[in-house]
Amino acid sequence: xxxxxxxxxxxxxxxxxxxxxxxxxxxxxxxxxxxxxxxxxxxxxxxxxxxxxxxxxxxxxxxxxxxxxxxxxxxxxxxxxxxxxxxxxxxxxxxxxxxxxxxxxxxxxxxxxxxxxxxxxxxxxxxxxxxxxxxxxxxxxxxxxxxxxxxxxxxxxxxxxxxxxxxxxxxxxxxxxxxxxxxxxxxxxxxxxxxxxxxxxxxxxxxxxxxxxxxxxxxxxxxxxxxxxxxxxxxxxxxxxxxxxxxxxxxxxxxxxxxxxxxxxxxxxxxxxxxxxxxxxxxxxxxxxxxxxxxxxxxxxxxxxxxxxxxxxxxxxxxxxxxxxxxxxxxxxxxxxxxxxxxxxxxxxxxxxxxxxxxxxxxxxxxxxxxxxxxxx
Length: 377
Description:
Blueprint: H1 2-17, H2 25-36, E1 40-46, E2 51-57, H3 61-69, H4 78-83, E3 90-91, H5 92-95, H6 98-101, H7 105-114, E4 116-126, E5 131-139, H8 147-170, H9 179-187, E6 192-196, E7 202-205, H10 207-215, E8 219-222, E9 225-228, H11 234-242, H12 246-249, E10 256-257, E11 266-272, H13 279-285, E12 289-295, H14 303-311, H15 315-327, H16 330-337, H17 341-355, H18 360-371
Antiparallel strand pairs: 1-2, 1-5, 3-4, 4-5, 6-7, 6-12, 8-9, 10-11, 11-12
Helix pairs in contact: 1-2, 1-8, 14-18, 15-16, 15-17, 16-17
């Protein structure tokens, strides 16, 4: 346990270095795969028709290209991934019975040739039509996802989420940036960025951050210290913990709420700057933490997520519905989903009954209606 704790703390430090030095990501993902118990790992974004890989280790570029160009449309786990909550861990069997999965075109033509057996995934962020994911993949040597893999993954996935959010906001490499260039780059970001010392005093704020302070409705300066407009203690407490390092902060600096409804929710992600590759940035500004502030987007559910909740569709019915909307015919759906045509027809009849439709064309129109951002909720 002592060895695992030491390894975990080192790994968390590596995770938080990667947003500031993106070239570190492949090595970090290698360590993550080894720690969790897999052969490959990736951070990527998926929709029903496309897959963009941001960072990866251990994935064959040829099969990555095949997935993006063809097999993302055949992936039977995709509807389930859209329904999985941010931060929740799920494996293949959580989306589709494994005995059905190995009969699908997706597995026979894409998974089996690579020797892939299973994967453990968690959404990092979601929108109406796509989901950003962190996944660790297992080959046949590792076998299926087990409880130990889930336990270890649960220890590191909150930190990956914070690192991914910060990396997406930052988009630059401190190794190649002089202090002046670094601050200019920060001024070009839409997110508010504040570099603060142990006492929450702001030593630097980018342009968006300064505009937020001038506005005063979410964040303000009190005696030079960063504070929320309503003086809640959460943010100062988190910044103080960040001054003690990664271990002291733990997961507390992830998505710290700065406002409550009916306002659009604002969130802060706090990154310690006193260790690893981050230390130099902290020294340059006499800062112990970086605070990234952004407004969350309205949660617009995907069409499948919306229909699943509204009509009470089971995972099997949802897979058939997704395949029907993408491929149409019973035979094609049977091949994609990996069940017999008779089973497809049975699921389809249940979907018809639950949605008060009678034909596939009506179903496709219904899916399109739920995908529209102008529809009534």
